[in-house]
Amino acid sequence: TAPPAGPAWNDSAYRIRQSLATVAHPEHAHPPPPRADRTILLLNSQNKIDGRIKWAINNVSFTLPHTPYLVALKHGLLGAFDQCPPPETYNHTGYDVYGVQANPNATTSDGLYRLAFGSVVDVVLQNANMLAPNNSETHPWHLHGHDFWTLGYGVGRFDPAVHPATYNLRDPVMKNTVAVHPFGWTALRFRADNPGVWAFHCHIEAHFFMGMGVAFEEGIERVGDLPEEIRRCVSTKGGHH
Predict the structure, then answer these.
(1) What is the sign of the dihedral through the CA atoms of 116, 169, 159 and 127?
(2) Which InterPro entries match (predicted)?
(3) Could you tell me which of 43, 46, 190, 195 has the fewest CB atoms within 10 Å of its CB?
(4) What are the φ and ψ backbone dihedral angles of 87, each rounded to 5 degrees?
(5) What is the reported pTM?
(6) By C-alpha distance, which of 123, 136, 140, 112 is closest to 201?
(7) Mean pLDDT across 162-177
(8) Has residue 107 got a pLDDT over 60?
């Protein structure tokens, strides 16, 4: 007997319906905090830097510093990475997620988001059209160091004045990886209660390498002394700079 046919691989409408229908089992439901202390809107876009195709978040293509963030922060190496944090939002009232950008140029940065320890953070991932017309991909986003509540999904441009009212605050599934569907948005909530620096990025390795990611710092003062061996990395080698 032939196996039943599943949905087409590119049936994004089916995948969104499935995502919206997925909730936590009643015996394992763990409702999220009722509200966030901070909201970060992240626009996924395909861009160009020096003529090369890159991925960017809020028009910034993420790069990793040569010196690990944790080492730089614990040893006061402020020149090891960009001290200017990335933008927390984009033109969400006017950006056309279905159109090709008139100016696809972006910049690079290894700056990070500094989160208050113990705070509740909402992140909304917004997908958009790529450089080619009528083209948008699914991106599996993964957060290191935490599980998060998946609050909602939608198609089109996220509206912070409207869509939060549709969030599932009763029985959302907790994950550490979630899909952002073509031309859609995904909202998640987590508590910044794990001291350290944590990557949040597309789990398609090529996309992360090309700039689709960010980093969060929280409670760095709570991190203990680092092993001496770690200081051999790049800017820390030989002492403070």
Answers:
(1) positive
(2) Cu-oxidase_C, Cu-oxidase_fam, Cu_oxidase_CS, Cu_oxidase_Cu_BS, Cupredoxin, CuRO_3_AAO
(3) 195
(4) -65, 145
(5) 0.93
(6) 140
(7) 98
(8) yes
What is the C-alpha separation between 134 and 120, in angstroms, rounded?
36
132: number of CA atoms within 13 Å, CB side? 3
Closest CA relative to residue 209, chosen from 13, 61, 98, 47 = 61
Q: Determine contact, residues 190/127, Cβ cutoff 8 Å.
A: no
Q: Which CATH superfamily is domain 37-236 in?
A: Cupredoxins -  blue copper proteins (2.60.40.420)
Domain positions in the chain are 37-236
- Give me the residue label for tokens 């056309």: 96
In 3-state terms, what secondary structure has residue 73? helix
The β-bridge relationship of strands 213-218 and 113-115 is parallel
In terms of Cα–Cα distance, which of 51, 183, 43, 158 is closest to 104? 51
Looking at 53-211, list the stretches that DSSP marks H as alpha helix, in order from N- to C-terminal side: 69-74, 205-209
* H or E element in which residue 143 lies: strand 139-143
| pLDDT of 239 higher than 60 | no
Report the SS3 class of residue 105.
Answer: strand
Mean pLDDT of 34-58: 97
Asked if 144 and 177 count as a contact pair (C-beta separation under 8 A), the reply is no
Residue 233 has pLDDT above 70, yes or no: no
Closest to 124 (Cα-Cα) out of 70, 57, 62: 57
DSSP code string of 171-223: SPPEESEEEE-TTEEEEEEEE--S-EEEEEEESSHHHHHTT-EEEEEE-GGGS
